[in-house]
Queue: 3 jobs
Job 1
Amino acid sequence: MKLVKNLNLPINYLFRSFGTYGYLCAMQFPSKLIEDAVNAFATLPGIGKKTALRLVMHLLQKEANDTKNLSEAILKMRTEIKFCKTCHNVSDEDICSICSNSYRDKSVVCIVENFRDIIAIENTRHYNGLYHVLEGLISPMDGIGPEQLNIQTLVQRMESGEVKEIIMALNPTIDGDTTIFYLSKMLAKYELKITSIARGIAFGGELEYVDEITLARSIQSRLPYENYLNKN
């Protein structure tokens, strides 16, 4: 029978200790350390106490060095991660690998809400320009205004005159459309082609959950923003 390292207890004993009855009432833990670990995992989005307990049980069965490597990787990510000074994408350096890539088309900038959307678009392998991360959307209902987003740095990037096209790749929601409308007015004084990704994405959806084929077609079939206004 497999034992939990350093506890000298069968692993299935601990699972029985947190069985069905345990979940119907308050959880009882044989160790304060396990309870603290479960509570810590349960703070993650989409992780409840039951899933958190399974993760803790899994770590107890792993070598101590494996758990150490995991904790060190998370801590290093959190303390050493940087945000690109140009586009605000997550980066290991002051300038991200996309902005510093000489093979990228610097005349095209794709505006996204967060870095997860960059990952989604990059996975399509149909875009070779640069990005600008707003880190949110204008949302009056949530008290989020333009001054709380990375809009001023976007305007500063337009001053060089190197950018010729802006692609609005924001979620097709009310907040997304509000942000697109605001940005199009802000950038109207520059000689730019302002486009929006084609609306093959359902209204109310989120970009990071769109399949790669649909997203790739949306990038390839982008339309002038004026056309989008006329069709809505």
Job 2
Amino acid sequence: MNTLTAEQTLQVTRRFKAPRERVFAFFSSAESIQQWFGCGPPNVIECSADFRVGGSYRFSSYNPETAQGAVAVGEYLEITPPSKIVHSWKWEDDEDWVGIESLVTFEFRAIGDETELHLTHTGFPSEDSCQKHTYGWNGCVEKLEALLNGAPVPAIKPCS
């Protein structure tokens, strides 16, 4: 389920057939994040994550269709294992993001042996940016679901 509000906030909710600790673990290291981050084929070419409050992350991705790269950066603001992660978010070298830093919140709710992930991303520079991130985050969540299920990562059209 996706929700988009007038304040340029996106929300994605997905239920996984995996325990909360296992789902949370996919967010806690660069090696794990690199497996599911980015829409399109696995195209993260560099990933670093200092997974602690005050630590930073940097995800470099490449779109083979457009031959363009993009770098997302931010700081971990809250980490409450295994229930919540909050970090800032911005794109480097993107004029639309000059002076803009958005906020991403992941909440992990245990439902028996399953986990409900609730992702909220706020503070976009435009409605268009919010729509593109909705597509991107949904692609990430689909890839994460495949990894959790031991299935091949789905072929998702790259973000544009």
Job 3
Amino acid sequence: MAHSGATVLDSHQLPGAVTQSGPYPRAPTPVNRDTAGPAARRTLTYNPRVPPTSDASNSDASSSAGTWRPTADRCPGVLRLINAADGHLARVRLPGGLITASQLRVLARLTDEMGDGRIELTSRGNIQVRALPADAAARLTDALTEVALLPSLDHDRVRNILASPLAGIDGGPDLTPLVHELDVGLCARPQLAELPGRFLFVIDDGRGDVAGLGADVTAIAGADGASVNGLAVSRKGVALVMLAFAEAFLGERAAQDPAAWRIADLPGGPGRVRAVVADRFGVPQALDFRPVPAPSRPVGIIGRPGAAGGPAAVVLLAPLGRLTVDQADWLADQVRGRPARVTPWRSVVLPDQADAARTLRAAVEMGFGVDARSPWLRVTACAGRPGCASALADVQADAAGFAARWPGRTVHVSGCARHCGRPATTEIDVTATSEGYDIAGA
């Protein structure tokens, strides 16, 4: 059955009095090879040995007969730090992207005192801290446990849960209780600590904003029904069935391929795992339950239909998905009641703003993007030089210039052929090489 989902407003447009003040700075046009020869207009293709949302800590792979196969799960966490050129890197999971004011302040303090002074937002709505000392894990563990960012040491790297960031803000049900139920259930099952760090859960409220992000387990929990990976379920049963898919994956993984990271890595994986879960709960396997695709990435003031004049949310764009300590502290000061939400597009949602226009004006002064003219709406980049030893360029310095060249297109700039952190929705793929930048998809 078709799924209409919650009402989606065209509310990313700002009031005329609240717009970005002044032009955005343009980076110098980077050296590139997009005008030389047939490579200039070749079709965008991905390296089949690297997953579309890969990161540097997981790019090691071996190939057998042309088939990509991971060698080990090296996803970073709080307890497992990854060594990079600029020090050690920690990743902090934020199920549903939810983060409170106190949690933001603790992360700001930790990165200021131990890291490089920046907080990275990831494409899974998590947070990374870079340039840490090798012995940072113990202090991180203590500090993050105190503010409920590390509820289970065993499940540190497997709490990968995305949810529709605007759910319950501009219409439809708030997914926060469902996110918490899934997270608590995940941490309560010792066997699920064995999930690979890449295994991903997604809960979409029916608008289609996160359902297409390539999760292993995707729930559609809209106002008129619910499904999990194509199985019709009651809304009360969504979390339980999602956990059952994870358990079924581990069973199939043990039987077929212990090196598999994702359900799709297994031969016939999606169908086999779905059949196991369907049999367990006695539900039909086939269900046409598609969300309506979201029209655009939200930015600016977001309101609920029929609630003119009441509290609204604002969505702010972090430059290249990175927050300074001052920006993180400022965000913490703006949290009102409900937690802030980190989105898979590396932006931040601040719900319940009594004076959203005032918040937006202050955000401009803090360096955030606040409207569709911002170059940070559709451009991402990996760490690049000097943070990554594999990078061939300082891609963060060049990224804004590339965004200006292809307005309205989603651009990712990679420092090497690994394409670390590249979103699955990338349209223009810019890769640094020893001869300059190679461009695909233009």
